[in-house]
Write a structure and sequence with these properties.
With 233 residues, the protein is α+β, with helices and mostly antiparallel strands. The protein is 28% helix and 36% strand. It has two domains: 87 residues, Alpha-Beta Plaits; 127 residues, 2-Layer Sandwich (Alpha-Beta Plaits).
């Protein structure tokens, strides 16, 4: 499997102008990326940084930067004003035993049924609280286990919750007269170190993403080398 790491920019002001609303930043980014590139070309993706209205987006793709740019050049001018040129390179193949830093933004929720049998989606931590009562691990522990259960090809050595919030989200909904529905969900960034155990499985996992809301900026496992310690002279 060949996987590319791609990078582009999104001018959120121009993107909002194109979609005609600003109900949710992740929804806006997903919409303009999909329309500009003709599908889920960069997915999963994440916001790497922001400079004013310009967001730097990184993500994985089975298409090269050259192929992605060819698609971009066919997009509407308003979309090309919102999405910058695509940069990228083929992702180096991981090797068994590699130790790497990782970072991933997750919506750590699980699907279950309430006492009446209705389907619902709840915070993985609150679901654990409901299951075991007071004797429950910390939110950080539960989220680390949530990630570990869904990660193929690597063993997590350590993980910590770098950021957590209950986020307001807006998604398209056929049940709403307005065409959109709002809800609140946990939003966590988990960082740590891992060891590669199955390079092929990990590469497939990178291309697929982890957990829920992968089209909306969640689930991209970003990897980086472990820093080399300085050697004393």
């Amino acid at each position: 499997m060949t996987l590319y790491q791609l990078q582009t920019t999104v001018d959120i002001t121009a993107a909002t102008r194109h979609v005609g609303h600003r109900r949710d930043t992740d929804l806006t980014i997903k919409t303009v990326l999909t329309e500009t590139l003709g599908g889920a070309v960069i997915r999963p993706w994440s916001i790497a940084r922001q400079n004013g209205p310009v967001l730097t987006i990184v993500g994985y793709s089975e298409l090269s930067a050259t192929e992605a740019n060819q698609r971009r050049e066919l997009a509407l001018p308003s979309l090309q004003a919102a999405i910058g040129p695509v940069l990228g390179y083929e992702l180096p193949a991981p090797q068994t035993g590699d130790r790497l830093l990782f970072s991933v933004r997750l919506q750590p929720t699980v699907r279950c049924r309430d006492k009446d049998g209705n389907r619902r989606e709840v915070d993985a931590f609150l679901h654990r609280v409901e299951a075991v009562g007071d004797d429950v691990p910390s939110r950080e522990t539960v989220y680390g286990e949530y990630l570990d259960e869904r990660l193929d090809g690597a063993q997590i050595e350590q993980a910590r919750v770098e950021r957590f919030q209950i986020a307001d989200r807006c998604r398209k909904s056929a049940r709403s007269k307005a065409g959109f529905a709002r809800y609140r969900a946990p939003d966590a960034v988990i960082t740590g170190t891992l060891t590669v155990t199955d390079p092929d499985a990990l590469l497939r996992q990178l291309g697929t993403g982890i957990g829920r809301q992968r089209a909306f900026g969640c689930g991209m496992l970003r990897l980086a080398p472990v820093p080399v310690r300085a050697v004393a002279a």
